[in-house]
Recover the amino acids of this structure.
């Protein structure tokens, strides 16, 4: 068996201290293998976003260990972590986080700019990513003039531009209507299928979660093992 | 992120909130404008003074006078009579009205000459001719510039006075030309004018003098310059008929020392003379005290400009803190995408420096424009009588220094917001709504 891309071993995270201490994550283990798609499902406040942040090396766990391709993340230097996030990870957020009055192309090539790629290559790769998402004609528009679906496609183009191994998507369809949401979902899954990009989706949308290879349910900071994948495949009508 | 990208991104960012950046730039503009103008005035006035006095060459000369009576304070009442003490003498033309100092006598001259380090001493003779006349076209009052032999004149035509010459030479100010009947400065050169002067008995005598040069008006004593032979001749006329035994007295004397004397030796000579009751000043001392006053004025003006700049610095802090606040999510995103804190810091610092550059460059540019314009207008109106005075002058080096200093202040002001930005945790930043 191959080494998992990311492996969380009983990781926990709490915020605040004393009376205000809040245990967001109380010990969750998960292995993520290259090329799979996995959904982290839970209600808001369940700790699912915290788990994603820890997996994406945006935060350090208080307990347990996180292995990146077998290496303990604690042993990675800051520079190496930045490189990983810049080149191996792509991020898609519910709120888009596009710079409103910069052009779509400028937004998309931000990771390349951070990586120190020259302007010519930046442009070429940015345009290629935009073409993939059928946004090439909007490259010069300001990000704020895009529709919701176009914005999320721009965000996906930004996540793709560095050819990442893993894409983290935090409620990627949360701000979109059903039709555009479905289009964005199709794009993400086709990237997973055609390019072998590992997909980690955080969502409370059971239907979206069901399209993933695997689901992890998080409830009150712990994995909810009572909800088997079978239960999802036959949603109990009223629950969904 | 590459260095070039940091700079272009920072510049683009500073233009994102144009109004806010604009207001901060205005604050810096005011400081930089003031600083440039005051430094321009400093340069202008100093260079004018230098052109006026650069000439007071004679580096081996001390002007010696009797030191003020230290004992004669108001509480002590009148000092006891001393028959050997010379009478007070007016410093004459140019000094404070009514001010007198103790005159130097021939005995004093002897004492000064005997002081170690002094190689020679001459009494400063001031002659007071009655009139000057050219070509029978009328007699006009003649003011003599006593400093003329010590200075190199700013000439409109002709040559400098030659003290070694055997001819009697006079240097006329440009203002005398029309009155005396010369059409151009050049036409006066080589002409002979007649100077009328009264002897001790009051009888007027005439002394001819050759015009060797015409001098632009100067701030250092107006009037005509006479060379040493002419001064001596006029002085001899004034003294002719003096009763024998009447003591001679002089306001000041010029003492020469070795040209190679070091600063320490000059100080020693001055201290030695001070011990004997004489005040001695080198030419450098005299110019120095003049420049000190101007430097103090410029310094005070600069201090105000710097205060304005410090206030502008807080404007930069405020602008950037707001900018960091506004861009929290963007910073979070960049950090999530692997941008390290140092680069974020550099990004915001660069923005601060750029705002500083924008304000100071605009301020300096406008100051140069306005300053040159005002200076040219003043030169033809208020300062018309002081040819060569450009009251505001700009040295490229001092403008560069001003822009550099403002950018440094901006950088320091940007430190606080830049640190705030660099320290942001990507998660908190992304959660920020």
């Amino acid at each position: 068996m191959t080494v998992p891309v990311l492996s969380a071993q009983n990781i926990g995270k709490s915020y605040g201290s004393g009376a205000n201490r809040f245990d967001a994550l109380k010990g969750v283990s998960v292995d993520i293998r290259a090329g799979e798609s996995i959904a982290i499902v839970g209600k808001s406040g369940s700790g699912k976003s915290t788990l994603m942040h820890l997996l994406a090396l945006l935060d350090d766990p208080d307990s347990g260990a996180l292995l990146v391709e077998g290496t303990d993340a604690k042993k990675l230097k800051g520079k190496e972590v930045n490189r990983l996030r810049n080149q191996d990870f792509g991020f898609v957020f519910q709120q888009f986080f596009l710079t409103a009055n910069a052009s779509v192309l400028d937004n998309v090539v931000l990771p390349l700019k951070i990586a120190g790629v020259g302007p010519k290559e930046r442009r070429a790769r940015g345009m290629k990513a935009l073409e993939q998402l059928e946004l090439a004609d909007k490259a010069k528009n300001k990000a704020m003039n895009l529709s919701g679906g176009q914005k999320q496609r721009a965000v996906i183009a930004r996540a793709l531009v560095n050819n990442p191994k893993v894409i983290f998507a935090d409620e990627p369809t949360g701000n979109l209507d059903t039709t555009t949401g479905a289009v964005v979902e199709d794009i993400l899954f086709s990237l997973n299928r055609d390019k072998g990009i590992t997909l980690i989706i955080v969502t409370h949308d059971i239907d979206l979660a069901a399209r993933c290879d695997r689901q992890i349910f998080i409830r009150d900071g712990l994995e909810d093992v009572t909800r088997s994948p079978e239960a999802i495949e036959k949603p109990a009508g009223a629950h969904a | 992120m590459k260095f070039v990208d940091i700079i272009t991104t920072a510049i683009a960012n500073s233009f994102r909130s144009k109004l806010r950046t604009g207001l901060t730039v205005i604050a810096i503009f005011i400081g930089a404008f003031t600083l440039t103008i005051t430094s321009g005035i400093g340069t202008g006035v100093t260079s004018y003074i230098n052109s006026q006095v650069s000439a007071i060459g004679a580096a081996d000369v001390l002007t010696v006078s009797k030191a003020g009576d230290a004992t004669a304070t108001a509480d002590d009442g009148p000092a006891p009579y001393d028959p050997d003490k010379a009478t007070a003498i007016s410093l004459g033309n140019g000094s404070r009205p009514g001010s007198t100092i103790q005159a130097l006598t021939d005995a004093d001259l002897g004492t000064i000459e005997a002081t170690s380090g002094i190689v020679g001493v001459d009494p400063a003779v001031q002659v007071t001719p009655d009139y000057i006349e050219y070509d029978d076209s009328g007699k006009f009052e003649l003011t003599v510039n006593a400093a003329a032999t010590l200075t190199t004149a700013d000439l409109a035509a002709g040559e400098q006075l030659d003290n070694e010459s055997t001819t009697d030479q006079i240097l006329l100010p440009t203002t005398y030309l029309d009155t005396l009947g010369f059409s151009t400065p050049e036409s006066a050169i080589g002409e002979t004018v007649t100077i009328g002067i009264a002897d001790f008995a009051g009888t007027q005598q005439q002394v001819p003098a050759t015009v060797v040069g015409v001098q632009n008006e100067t701030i250092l004593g107006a009037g005509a310059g006479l060379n040493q032979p002419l001064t001596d001749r006029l002085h001899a006329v004034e003294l002719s008929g003096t009763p024998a035994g009447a003591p001679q007295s002089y306001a000041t004397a010029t003492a020469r020392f070795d040209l190679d004397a070091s600063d320490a030796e000059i100080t020693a000579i001055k201290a030695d003379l001070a011990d004997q009751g004489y005040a001695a000043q080198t030419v450098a001392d005299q110019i120095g005290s003049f420049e000190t006053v101007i430097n103090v004025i410029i310094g005070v003006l600069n201090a105000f400009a710097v205060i304005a700049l410090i206030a502008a610095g807080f404007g930069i802090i405020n602008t950037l803190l707001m900018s960091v606040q506004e861009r929290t999510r963007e910073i979070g995103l960049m950090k999530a995408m692997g941008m390290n804190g140092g680069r974020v810091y550099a990004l915001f610092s660069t923005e601060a420096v750029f705002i500083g550059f924008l304000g100071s460059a605009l301020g300096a540019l406008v100051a140069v424009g306005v300053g040159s314009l005002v200076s040219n207008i003043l030169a033809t109106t208020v300062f018309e009588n002081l040819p060569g005075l450009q009251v505001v002058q700009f040295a490229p080096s001092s403008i560069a220094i001003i822009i550099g200093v403002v950018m440094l202040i901006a950088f320091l002001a940007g430190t606080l917001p830049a640190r705030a930005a660099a320290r942001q945790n990507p998660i908190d930043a992304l959660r920020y709504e």
